Amino acid sequence: MACTRRTKTLVSTCVILSGMTNIVCLLYVGWVTNYIANVYVKVPMPVPDKKLDGDKKGETLRIIERLDRLENVVNQHIQEIPLRGEGVQAEAEQSFSDSSLFSHWGRDLGPESRRVALKMFQAHGYNSYLSDRISLDRPIPDLRPDGCKNISYPPHLPQVSIVFIFVNEALSVILRSIHSAIHTTPTHLLKEIILVDDNSSNEELKLRLDEHVSELNSRRPGLLKLVRHQRQEGLIRSRVSGWRAASAPVVALFDAHVEFNTGWAEPILSRIQEDRTRIVSPSFDNIKYDTFEVEEYPLSAQGFDWELWCRYLNPPKAWWSLSNNTAPIRTPALIGCFVVDRQYFEEIGLLDEGMEVYGGENVELGIRVWQCGGSVEVLPCARIAHIERAHKPYTEDLTGHVRRNALRVAEVWMDEFKTHVYMAWNIPQEDSGIDIGDISERRALRKRLQCKTFRWYLVNIYPEMRMYTDMAAYGVLKNSLKPEVCLDQGPDQDNVPILYLCHGMTPQVMYYTQTQQAVRQACSAPTIDSRRQQVPGGRQRQATPPGVQLRHRQTHEALLALLPGRLYPEPTVQALSGAGGERHQ
Ligand SMILES: [Mn+2]
């Protein structure tokens, strides 16, 4: 699962007004889960040694400050990814006291224990040192809304197979997921637990895991099944492997770093029994990666932005108007963990196994199920706590995989709206150079299931999603005098746009619209309800064609020229090189 709930605010929206002499920056509060943005909060601003005078030097100073921060971000990132090779051990020891692992935990640990804990943290992305020292059967707080406790469910519900997928997960974390599933799922409803090991290399996940499985099976014969991949297949195909091994009428597909809350299964099984075309997600709480405390999350739907990263959403208005916080929440997509009728899952096309490694499959499933006649919902009375890792073990950079997978979704399911995905990733719509693999089977599936259009989905299921139907161009704004610098949204703290070395990543992607006559940094706010406002009232704005320059008010020096790297609907200008739309994790 890739979603986090950290809410980053203050993204600048820059609107270039009539006459191109003013840049007015507006604020909106966006749900932005951008790694850099998150780290900006943690990294203290460096204090410059000396003050420079004048605008130009001030600008230079700001750029230097940004570079300093970027360096801090990189340093912090380096600390928290698994270390490889010789010599890095010493660096790890040297830097352990700076790790985020010790911000809220471990102050009393001796240096040797801290070294061990840090090494384990780097391997797993969470505090496995602590996990090894807390009970596999620990209770967690019952965070269900009050009304849930009074609901009764049908006496005969379908059985469930719970699938846990993992790669190089800490053994104690996997075992706690299993123990929690056994303790919270009524015995007669739990058919089996299937572990899918996606070719882990950790020694403890070999013999020792086998021993635990045998031990648990000696108490409840046949309860646990272990599927081991001979090569790494990625999260998406691992889930499908688990589904293939399952035999109960309902399958629950989860990560192996979760703890179930009381009574999680009955509400879900009952909803699926009523209608087998419902795919159901529990509500998620967070297990903090450092302290393992369970943190309550507000009830949410699950959506996505145009890069197809998942987002927690405010539940729809229709849900609020029920004034019943136990009612199912209609959701446009899924975060990644869900429960489904085993046969229906096959009929609807499982997951897109042509996707690679990680990302997008959850969004694709949500879109597909809705467009092809099913439904997707989140249940407030089914709660599961999940560890949001500090970093993921699959690969150090998931972005390329997520982008490729997102383009598959766009090409198969999104009709004319596929342009939005290309825009969000800042890649050309023709000859993107990205190999998305063969999508003919998925297109045939859509035809066979006679699915509705993506426009229908947006209007009826995901009305909160912003549409960019009046876009004239997108790309970066380059300075015509100094072509290596671009307009950038700038630090989050002051909300002032800056010039910065061109990198083409999200903070520099600008959009030129026909009706608002605006150039703005966008798509970080994926949905309407995360957008505060558009433009200040009273000013009459005129259309400004792409290619015009932004000039300094006094000197009339050309500051910026819109370089329409990508135009649509007719891409006529060559794409910028090196502006690959990379996104920070
Ligand atoms: Mn997860």
Could you describe the 3D structure shown?
The protein has 585 residues and is α+β, with helices and mostly antiparallel strands. It folds into 3 domains: 11-56 and 467-567, no CATH class; 82-124, no CATH class; 157-387, Spore Coat Polysaccharide Biosynthesis Protein SpsA, Chain A (Alpha-Beta Complex), CATH 3.90.550. 29% of the residues lie in helices and 19% in strands. It has 16 helices and 23 strands. The strands form 7 sheets. The protein has a 5-stranded mixed β-sheet with strand order 5-4-3-6-13, sandwiched between helices. Strands 7, 8, 9, 12 and 14 form a 5-stranded mixed β-sheet that branches. A 4-stranded antiparallel β-sheet has the order 20-19-15-23, with no helix packed on it. Helix 6 links the parallel strand 3 and strand 4. The two termini are 13 Å apart. The model is unreliable at 6-54, 80-86, 521-554 and 556-585 (pLDDT under 50). The structure holds manganese (II) ion (MN). Residues 1, 255, 257, 386 line the site of manganese (II) ion.
Structural class of the helix and strand makeup?
A: alpha+beta
| Amino- and carboxy-terminal Cα gap | 13 Å
Task: Write down the CATH topology of the largest domain.
Answer: Spore Coat Polysaccharide Biosynthesis Protein SpsA, Chain A
Report the sheet with the most strands, covering strand number, pairing sense and barrel closure: 5 strands, mixed
| CATH C-level class of the largest domain | Alpha Beta
Strand order within the widest beta sheet: 5-4-3-6-13
Integer tally of domains:
3
Number of strands: 23
Share of residues in helices? 25-40%
The CATH architecture of the largest domain is Alpha-Beta Complex
CATH-level-4 superfamily name of the largest domain? Spore Coat Polysaccharide Biosynthesis Protein SpsA, Chain A
Q: Which ligands accompany this protein? A: manganese (II) ion
Average pLDDT, to the nearest integer?
78
Low confidence ranges = 6-54, 80-86, 521-554, 556-585
Report the radius of gyration as a whole number of Å. 25 Å
The total count of helices amounts to: 16
Proportion in β-strands: 15-25%
Given the C-alpha coordinates, what overall shape results?
Answer: globular
